[in-house]
C-alpha cells in the first residue's frame, strides 16, 4: 500500500510552506532516510526525508505552496529497487598507487562547470540569488562549492552594487524594462512566506506599541568592568542581549499576561520563559529560541546567542531551534535604527524592540547631562494585554537595565 508523504508540523505559528526543490523525481526509487524535497517556511528551510524505501510519485510542483498535513507525494514500498542497484560488483580490495593518485588528481580538477555535483542547499541559493557558479572558487573538498561559498559570493556582489544573475534567457530579459530603469525579480519562496506571515500578524492581532527610553550608563560601566574576566572565563564576550533577556524575564514574571497567547476563545498562560532572539541573515529574519532563559546564567545566554548567530549565517538552524517561543526580542539598533514599531511573532502576544544607543541630553537630579540613551518599544496584542500592563512591563525592563543590581548577576 502506498505511503503518503505529508507536510509535517514545523512550528506553532506555521500553517503552510513552499516546496522549494525536489531532490528526487517521480518514478525514482528512494531509500529510507533520503532527502525528498526542501520545504521553505517563513522561519527556516528544512529537508523532508523518506520514512520508507520505495518508488516515489510526486503530487506537488516545485514552488507550490502547501499546507501542513497536505499530501505532496506517495512512496510505494511494494516495488523493489532497480536491478542494477541490487546487483553490485564486488569492491576491489586495493588500487594501484598510481591509479589511486590519478583518481585524486582528477577529483581535484573537477569544477562546477565540468559537472561537479552541488548539494541541494547550494543549488537552492544559486537559483534564488541567480549566481553564476562557474565564477566562484569552491573551498570544499576537491574544489566543490559549499553553502558558505555561494552566500559569501552573493553578499560580496550585493555590497558592490552588482546584479547577481545567471546568463539571461528571454524570460529573464523580459523582466527588465526597455529603458533599463527597473528590473523585475521574482521573490524567493522564503521572502514570500515572510511577507505573508507579516500581513497575517497585522490582520489577526490588535497590535499596539508603547515606548520608553532607558539610560545605558550602568550596563555599559558594568560590561567594561567585567568584560576581560568574563571573556577569559567563558570564552565569549559579555554583550547587551543577555542583560535584556534577563530584564525581560523579570518583567514577564511581574506581568505574566505578556508571556501568554490567545488560542481561539482561550488564553494560554505560559509558566516558562523561552525567549526568541531575532537574528538577521542574508535570506531573511529568523527567530531562534533561548530555552529556559530564567534558569540560565549570563554566560550560558551569551553562548546560546553566539551559537544561533553562527547557525543562522551558515543556514544550519533546525526547525526545533525556532519552535515554542513565548516572547521575542528584536535589536534593530545593530543596523542603526533609532526608533521602530516591531511586529508580533504569532502566536506570541508581545515583542520588545531595542534600538541604537545615542548620547542625548537628559535631566538628572535637576541638571542636564549627556547620557547613552536607548529607545525601547513594546508591541503587544491589545486583545489580551491592556495598556496599563504593557506600560508596567516596559517600565520594569527600564528599571532593570538602569539598575542591573536588580538582575540575578552571576559574574
In short, what is this structure?
By secondary structure, this protein is α+β, with helices and mostly antiparallel strands. Helices cover 30% and strands 24% of the residues. Strands 9, 12, 15, 16, 17, 18 and 19 form a seven-stranded mixed beta sheet that branches. A four-stranded antiparallel beta sheet has the order 1-8-6-3, with no helix packed on it. Strands 5-4-2-7 form a four-stranded antiparallel beta sheet.
Secondary structure: helix percent: 25-40%
What is the approximate shape? globular
The secondary-structure class comes to alpha+beta
Largest sheet: 7 strands, mixed
Order of helices and strands: EEEEEEEEHHHHHHEHHEEEEEEHEEEEH
Mean pLDDT: 84
Number of helices: 10
| Total number of strands | 19
Low-confidence stretches: 98-111, 162-174
Gyration radius over CA: 26 Å
Share of residues in strands: 15-25%
Distance from N terminus to C terminus (CA atoms, Å) equals: 60 Å
Amino acid at each position: 500500500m502506498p505511503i503518503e508523504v505529508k507536510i509535517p508540523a514545523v512550528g506553532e505559528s506555521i500553517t503552510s510552506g513552499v516546496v522549494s526543490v525536489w531532490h528526487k523525481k517521480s518514478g525514482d526509487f528512494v531509500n529510507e532516510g533520503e532527502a525528498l524535497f526542501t520545504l521553505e517556511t517563513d522561519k527556516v528551510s528544512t529537508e523532508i526525508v523518506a520514512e520508507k524505501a520505495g518508488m516515489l510519485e510526486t503530487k506537488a510542483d516545485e514552488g507550490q505552496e502547501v499546507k501542513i498535513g497536505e499530501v505532496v507525494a506517495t512512496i510505494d514500498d511494494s516495488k523493489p529497487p532497480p536491478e542494477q542497484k541490487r546487483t553490485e560488483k564486488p569492491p576491489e580490495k586495493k588500487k594501484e598507487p598510481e591509479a589511486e593518485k590519478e583518481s585524486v588528481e582528477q577529483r581535484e580538477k573537477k569544477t562546477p562547470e565540468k559537472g561537479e555535483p552541488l548539494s541541494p542547499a547550494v543549488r537552492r541559493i544559486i537559483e534564488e540569488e541567480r549566481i553564476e557558479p562557474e565564477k566562484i572558487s569552491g573551498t570544499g573538498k576537491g574544489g566543490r562549492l559549499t553553502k558558505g561559498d555561494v552566500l559569501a559570493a552573493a553578499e560580496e556582489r550585493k555590497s558592490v552594487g552588482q546584479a547577481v544573475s545567471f546568463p539571461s534567457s528571454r524570460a529573464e530579459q523580459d523582466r527588465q524594462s526597455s529603458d533599463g530603469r527597473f528590473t523585475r525579480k521574482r521573490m524567493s519562496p522564503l521572502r514570500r512566506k515572510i511577507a505573508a506571515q507579516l500581513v497575517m500578524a497585522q490582520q489577526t492581532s490588535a497590535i499596539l506599541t508603547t515606548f520608553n527610553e532607558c539610560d545605558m550608563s550602568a550596563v555599559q560601566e558594568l560590561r567594561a568592568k567585567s568584560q576581560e574576566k568574563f571573556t577569559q572565563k567563558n570564552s565569549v564576550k559579555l554583550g547587551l542581549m543577555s542583560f535584556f533577556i534577563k530584564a525581560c524575564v523579570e518583567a514577564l514574571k511581574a506581568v505574566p499576561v505578556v508571556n501568554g497567547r490567545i488560542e481561539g476563545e482561550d488564553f494560554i498562560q505560559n509558566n516558562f520563559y523561552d525567549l526568541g532572539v531575532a537574528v538577521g541573515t542574508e535570506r531573511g529574519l529568523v527567530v531562534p529560541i533561548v530555552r529556559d532563559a530564567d534558569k540560565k546564567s549570563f554566560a550560558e545566554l551569551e553562548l546560546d546567542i553566539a551559537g544561533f548567530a553562527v547557525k543562522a549565517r551558515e543556514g544550519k538552524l533546525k526547525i526545533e531551534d525556532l519552535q515554542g517561543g513565548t516572547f521575542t526580542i528584536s535589536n534593530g539598533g545593530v543596523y542603526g535604527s533609532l526608533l521602530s514599531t516591531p511586529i508580533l511573532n504569532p502566536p506570541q502576544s508581545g515583542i520588545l524592540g531595542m534600538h541604537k544607543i545615542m548620547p542625548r541630553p537628559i535631566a538628572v537630579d535637576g541638571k542636564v547631562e549627556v547620557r547613552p540613551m536607548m529607545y525601547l518599544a513594546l508591541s503587544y496584542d491589545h486583545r489580551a494585554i491592556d495598556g496599563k500592563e504593557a506600560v508596567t512591563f516596559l517600565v520594569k525592563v527600564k528599571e532593570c537595565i538602569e539598575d542591573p543590581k536588580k538582575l540575578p548577576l552571576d559574574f
